[in-house]
Automatic annotation (TrEMBL):
It is an enzyme of class 1 (oxidoreductase). Residues 238-304 form the DUF1965 domain. GO terms for biological process: amine metabolic process. The modification 2',4',5'-topaquinone is found at residue 471. Belongs to the copper/topaquinone oxidase family. Residues 83-149 form the Copper amine oxidase N2-terminal domain. The active site is at 390 (proton acceptor), 471 (schiff-base intermediate with substrate). Residues 23-52 are annotated as: Disordered. The keyword Plastid does not apply. Keywords: Copper, Metal-binding, Oxidoreductase, Signal, TPQ. This is Amine oxidase. PANTHER family: AMINE OXIDASE, COPPER AMINE OXIDASE.
Amino acid sequence: MVRLGGILASLAVIASELAVHAAPSSPPRFSPRSTHLYPRHENCTAPSNPLVTAPKPNPWKPLSDTEIIDLLSWLHAPAQGLNLTAYENASTWDNWVTVTELLAPNKTDVLPYLDGSGPAPKRYARVVISYGATENPYWQEYMVGPIPVVQSVTKIEPLNYVYNKGEGKSPNYAADEESQRIWLSLIAANMSDITLDILGTDSTDSNFRPIDPLWEENGRIISWVQFWSNPTSDYDSYTLLPQGLYLKLDITGRDLQGWSLLNILYDNKLYKSIDEFRAAWISPGFKKLTKQVDGQWTGTGQTGTAPPLDIRSPPIQIQPDGQRFAVDKDAKYVEWMDFAFYIGFNRDTGVNLYDIKYKGKRIIYELGLQEAIAHYAGNDPTQSGTAYLDSYYGFGPDVFELVPGYDCPAYSTFLDSTVHENGNTTNNRNSICLFEHDAGYPLQRHTASSYLSITRNTIFTLRFVATIGNYDYNFDYNFYLDGSIEIKVRASGYIQSAFYAHNEDYGYQIHDATSGSMHDHVLNFKADLDILGTKNTFERVEVVPTTTDYVWSTSPRNTMRLERSSVENENEGKINWATNSAAMYFVVNKDQPNKFGSSPGYRIMPGTGTPIHLTVQNSSNLQKAAEFATHHLYVTKHKDTEQRSAAAANSMNPKDPLINFAKYFDGESLLQEDIVVWFNLGMHHVPHTGDLPNTVFTTAQSSVFLSPHNYLLSDPSRATSQQVEINFDTDDVAVSTFGSTSPSCTRPDLVSVNNFFPKIGFCSLFFALS
Ligand SMILES: [Cu+2]
């Protein structure tokens, strides 16, 4: 009774404190541009944002607009002899510059700079040139530098050293896509009488989606295309409208006279020509399949009756004391609590984090996305032939602006991102958000007979969202007060569906003629951990059942024990998460044992969901282009020549890709070496009716944790003052909040919202809903 009364009394004390800071019952009217929304009192002003200057200029800082302009001018100069045409003036038979961006510096050049008095690494640009003035169009990658351009000093040379194919050169089968589209429309026009009957559309009202990657058959370049209906509304629903007609095309070479229609597939029957298909169509007994028709079912706007009380504003988080982290926006450097890191950004994969330090010591040199696969399957050639490698399309240009209050808390700090490609500068404002948020559950708690101890669980998140065609990938890097880092991916947006006919083994029918098409999402990440130096070991600790005699036991006992081992070399470096989670994996430093003899390290483990590897083995589509997807995680020895697990151009030549990850595993020792971990996130996605109209993030997510393990001598989160201890053993209840202060303001600072959408009236909507 004393105990319960004590707790209630304690809560009353806390409640009375909070009451002082409660929001006013009727908020004052405010101007949308007011800097003091919902003030608690006249002088409610949150502390200003803390300032920080990066300890050293960011060696991964993207090239500036000026550097890009000077670089393009230099590349186009006759002296370079590249025979370039400005992209806006170029035909498919010209050469032009596609990508210009920073070439990530070599680790061996960066470490002496970051850790000592070494010079800043020279900046080089990665330049990709599309060579169209040839019968065999190709892309060639170059390194150009040093940057900024200095005449007679800056040089250009092929960028080969990071590609284990031996050269940064790849065929470009996309060079004549526009000609192929026009040619395809002519084919479709020749069968409009048929398609109007069986699909309800003709060549002008359909779109044609090809397989990806293209196939090579007996030296010929083969594509299958499927008819898809165009949406009848403004909603982006084209991937929900497949029709059951497929064309097999030979698109070898650049002369359309050499292209040919090879087959037509309808209702699982193969025809050799339009004439043969037409003959079947007009013959008695021809079976016409159900057409998929667009409608309200594909729109994402509010429909149906809202649930009870749903119209009321839901809870929102606030940042009552202002920002508790510091950002050097120019250097793209961030400090939160005991963490610090630099941000890099590139065309292929978007955001990368570098030089992540915890308590002043580097734990990760590089952390970032490498590639994202969406591998489909189905009874038809489109689904069977689709295995997207999304870095080909590029995450960087598709990291779009985030909406405060919906994508990220309204009080978030936002950063811009920029990509230079094909003569365009894509500057996506406010496309990366940084914010703290409450986890919604405590980080720690304990109730004892005389006291209660609880710690707030505050997470710091870096978030960006890349919309690659129909899919929206949400990437979170979550930092925790216990020293953990969580890497999380969620998927939403429109599924790529399949036509329903004959597809029962590959998905559920989810609409009149649409099947949810089974597919695997596998997203590969690089985590170059450096624990107390670069020399580390990958350790495995298994929990195993055993039967053991003890000196004190009268008979053998059935129990369990630990089995410790190390991944000795790269031949053992392909690893799966253990069944029943019976193995734990760590990157440790064996040269610096703690006082108990254990090696300090970071554990890598699955978090949300169950990260997967690719189901398909020896994929007919991907061949050697995605060797990073055969297992859950990998360990290799770091090399400057092995920077990524995949290249953007891999999908153009999957049997001989620029980067074949499998070649990284050549038996080198991994014992106390500079090791790199590569891990996969993702999910088996078998869409059901709940994926209409959009997949929701709820279950389409997975994460991995990197977590300190024997790294410190106790839990570092004890250092936070954001905890409470309530002692109720005596009549005098004592509440300690360890010096943490009361909030300065208790309502959200929404001032920045108006600046995000100044032209489209969005802010009025936002304020109405807030
Ligand atoms: Cu999916």
